[in-house]
Amino acid sequence: MDTINFGAGPAKLPREVMCKVQRDFLNYENSGISVVEMSHRSAEYEKINNDAQKELRSLLNVPENYKIIFLQGGGTGIFAAVAMNLMGRTGSADYFVTGSWSSKAAKEASKYGKVNLVLPKTDVYTEVPDKSTWKLDPQASYVYYCANETIHGVEFPFIPDVDVPLVADMSSNFLSRPVDVSKFGVIYAAAQKNIGPAGVTLVIIREDLLGNPLPICPLILDFTVMAKDNSLHNTPPTFGVYVMGQVFKWVTEQGGVEEMERLAKLKSELIYSTIENSGGFYFTSVKAGYRSRMNVPFRIKNSELEPEFLKEAKNLKMIQLKGHRLVGGIRASLYNAITMEETQAFKKFMEDFMKAHK
Ligand code: PMP
Q1: CA-CA to 119 of 20 to 30 Å: which in 2, 43, 225, 276?
Q2: Where does the Aminotransferase class V domain start and stop, copy by copy (predicted)?
Q3: How far apart are the C-alpha atoms of 238 and 35, rounded to whole Å?
Q4: Which of 150, 151, 186 to mutate for ligand 1's pocket (most ligand atoms within 8 Å of CB)?
């Protein structure tokens, strides 16, 4: 068996896409040069840029009144950009904090306006607390949440129903299920999990939210400028946009986001059921109903066995399984590119390890 990369990001990309990128690398469509050597003002790149948007538009049925833009600065750049582009309306915003990424986003936004926390404060992230605990401010410029917390493994099973523009960080579950884009003001994703290499972030924004950035907003994070200039205000991350476009095509060829969702359910259930059926040998703190289909963090009851688990997994070429340093333990990320066979191989390893060490 080849190496299986369960990393949380940068993460595995589809094999077919990697082979296509390799074939194209030295001579992109008979241009005689590589994408990484090509002017971002060339006709070839313009097509790459437009095709990626077109493909995504069709994958997610993005309505006409939404712009798709490609930026740099990673997810962390967008934490600031969201606030600088949207906070202007009322000067305050509501944040759901369900894990460390939304916590960081809220902290960053508080540099640019008043941040209200929707949920009771905690540093134990195991669920999306019940609606009865939510404190939403009707004056908020926007409501922000992280659809999938990559470290804590908490995924929203629903779209929060709110009366002001809704902003979602979908970095680690983008294109893993259909989404009704019309329910959102902004959806964004750093590419390096489910859709491409590090270096590019994509933003889908409803047009009426453009045009009101804070005066201090830098040009490269200004959604209005970037949308107007078709993500070509300055040199874009050309290679990242090209690979992302290839991943979008691949998702379409696989059967679209519906098929990604079907597989994500099956794959994550294989691992969660192994945890559930282990009689406590393995456990996860995340409550049923909020367990991420993309990132499965879990522990071994006898935590001294965890380094051994990682070592034996590595011997079988199953890598990048170490849990994030904030939570420890083990984390298996099951992004779109991870196959059923790879997931089954990991499940079998979990069962074999348990038998050998119980
Ligand atoms: N949001 C989520 C859900 C993440 O997993 C991450 C980490 N990759 C970020 C934001 C921050 O992204 P970046 O490291 O690109 O700044």
Answers
A1: 276
A2: 5-346
A3: 7
A4: 150
Whether 150 lines ligand 1, by a CB cut-off of 6 Å, is: yes
Q: Strand 282-283 vs strand 295-300: parallel, antiparallel, or unpaired?
A: antiparallel
**3 state DSSP class of 149:** strand
DSSP state of 161: -
CA of residue 201 to ligand 1 center, whole Å? 10
Omega before residue 10 within 30° of 0, cis: yes
Tens digits of residue pLDDT in 139-188: 999 999 999 999 999 999 999 999 999 999 999 999 999 999 999 999 99
Dihedral angle at the C-alpha atoms of 148, 153, 159, 161, nearest 10 degrees?
-110
Query: Is the Cα dihedral 90, 91, 96, 102 positive or negative?
Result: positive
Query: Is 0.85 exceeded by the ipTM?
Result: yes
Q: At residue 54, what is the residue type?
A: K
- β-sheet bridge partners, residue 71: 201
Burial code of 140-170, b = ≥16 C-beta within 10 A, e = fewer?
bbbbbbbbbbbbbbbbbeeebebebbbbbbb
CB-CB contact of 353 with 31 (8 Å): no
CA 257/CA 255 separation, integer angstroms: 7
pTM over 0.80: yes
Q: Round the CA-based radius of gyration of the chain to a whole number and report it.
A: 21
